[in-house]
Design goal:
The complex is a heterodimer of chains A (114) and B (115).
Chain A: E1 4-7, E2 10-14, E3 19-25, E4 32-38, E5 45-51, E6 56-59, E7 62-67, E8 72-77, E9 86-96, E10 99-104, E11 108-113
Parallel strand pairs in A: 2-11
Antiparallel strand pairs in A: 1-3, 3-8, 4-5, 4-9, 6-7, 7-8, 9-10, 9-11
Chain B: E1 4-7, E2 10-13, E3 19-25, E4 31-38, E5 42-49, E6 56-57, E7 65-67, E8 73-78, E9 87-94, E10 105-106, E11 110-114
Parallel strand pairs in B: 2-11
Antiparallel strand pairs in B: 1-3, 3-8, 4-5, 4-9, 5-6, 7-8, 9-10, 9-11
Classes of the chains: A mainly beta (114), B mainly beta (115).
Chain lengths: 114, 115
């Protein structure tokens, strides 16, 4: 099955700095890569996603890049703010052969220091 | 439009007891999922359904059963609860599974403790 590795597990940045979270996946057939943000005690919420036919996608201060050859994708947050503090999860979707599963990384706890 | 809802929000069970967690969505989504979230483990898929009357196993299905008798509801059952099933359970749904319709929307979660 699919395996998703996420690094780092914790990340502290000063307000205004950038944060980068990296994920690698094992199944080259995976074709959809969402990122979720989870605040303490809340549900995961989708913040951005990318499909395998695209190399980069941006949404205001958030961007995701995908390198299919190397099987890794990254989340970039610029001009970080205290409200960006949360746990971020990457995921990879494999669909095929009658299976449909989204596999998550173990999460990165981001702390933005004012 | 409530989105995805879960019942109950919290529950404490004794080892060996049974219970059912209910997930409901009002978005007319075909696909529904049950995940468990443990500290340091991320979210792991227990079971999922690609339509009314269908179910399929995910990564960690042992000790759980599911049913999808109605399109809007997905039930997760624990027949004989064990302490290892102490976790936060999230339900999610997506319109379909193909590109452009596969975004998963999560419910608020159920915190289950098994003593």
């Amino acid at each position: 099955g699919e395996n998703v590795e996420q690094h780092p597990s914790t990340l502290s940045v000063q307000e205004g700095d950038s944060a980068v979270i990296k994920c690698t996946y094992s199944d080259s057939a995976s074709n959809y890569f969402p990122w979720y943000k989870q605040e303490l005690g809340k549900r995961p919420q989708l913040i951005i996603d990318i499909r395998s036919n695209v190399g980069e996608k941006k949404d205001q201060r958030i961007a995701v890049t995908l390198n299919k050859t190397a099987k890794h994708f990254s989340l970039h947050i610029t001009e970080t703010q205290p409200e960006d503090s949360a746990v971020y999860f990457c995921a990879a979707l494999f669909s095929g052969a009658g299976s449909y599963q989204l596999t998550f990384g173990k999460g990165t706890k981001l702390s933005v220091i004012p | 439009n409530a989105g995805v809802t879960q019942t109950p929000k919290f529950r404490v069970l004794k080892t060996g007891q049974s219970m059912t967690l209910l997930c409901a969505q009002d978005m007319n989504h075909e696909y529904m999922y049950w995940y468990r979230q443990d500290p340091g483990m991320g979210l792991r898929l227990i079971h999922y359904s690609v339509g009314e009357g269908t179910t399929a196993k995910g990564e960690v299905p042992d000790g759980y059963n599911v049913s999808r008798l109605k399109k809007q509801n997905f039930l997760l059952g624990l027949e004989s609860a064990a302490p290892s099933q102490t976790s936060v359970y999230f339900c999610a749904s997506s319109l379909f599974g193909r590109a452009g319709t596969d975004t998963q929307y999560f419910g608020p979660g159920t915190r289950l403790t098994v003593l």
